[in-house]
Each structure stands twice: as C-alpha cells, then as structure tokens.
Inverse folding.
C-alpha cells in the first residue's frame, strides 16, 4: 500500500510504503521532478526499487487529490 501525503514544503509529497500494515520505506517526491520526467517523455519511473509507477497517472492523481477543487 502506498500512502501519499503532502509535506511541509510546497510541491513535495511524502510517499510511504506499507506491507500488511508494516511501514517499510518513505520517499520524498517532488512535483517539479515529475513534470520534468513527463516533459522528457519518460512513461514509467521506479519507486522504492520495487514498484513501477506511470508518471502521467501519478501526476493526474496528485492533481486530482491535492490541487483540484
């Protein structure tokens, strides 16, 4: 399970990985870096060296949950 929450810094999100309720890792994800990857045409990125995430869908999710009204 991935839990995404905004950090204290604007444009930075904390992504926490949990497996069966046990916290595994936390990664800070910068929104600007995601936009740069999208601009460069990168379709998929790795999180936690285990999971692959679609960059466009992650940007869409962040926009919808944190920036949309």
């Amino acid at each position: 399970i991935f839990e995404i929450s905004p950090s204290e810094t604007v444009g930075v999100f904390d992504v926490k990985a949990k497996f069966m309720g046990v916290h595994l890792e936390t990664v800070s994800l910068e929104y600007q870096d995601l936009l740069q990857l999208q601009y460069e045409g990168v379709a998929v990125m790795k999180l936690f060296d285990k999971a692959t995430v679609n960059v466009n869908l992650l940007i869409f999710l962040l926009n919808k949950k944190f920036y949309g009204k």
Remarks:
- Residues 1-65 form one domain.
